[in-house]
Specification:
Blueprint lengths: L9 H5 L2 E2 L3 E2 H11 L4 H12 L5 H14 L1
Antiparallel strand pairs: 1-2
Helix pairs in contact: 2-4, 3-4
Length: 70
């Protein structure tokens, strides 16, 4: 049996899922929030308020990526 390959899901585009995990808006909120509080606190706030699990290291990577684009 062959392992499943990565694929494209049409609903991902409709929901604007970004990086395969979070919507673009959640990623933007994470980056914005990280400018106000520590990465660990941003992770906790997003989880408690929005029930969106995104690790502090994932937030850090998004901040780094968007700074490079800036």
């Amino acid at each position: 049996m062959r392992p499943a390959a990565a694929g494209f899901f049409p609903l991902d585009r409709q929901l604007a899922v970004w990086d395969g995990h979070w919507s673009e808006q959640i990623a933007k909120y994470a980056v914005w929030l990280s400018a106000l509080v520590e990465f660990e606190d941003a992770e906790d706030i997003l989880d408690r308020i929005g029930q969106n699990t995104i690790s502090d290291s994932s937030i850090w990577w998004r901040v780094k990526r968007w700074r490079e684009r800036g």
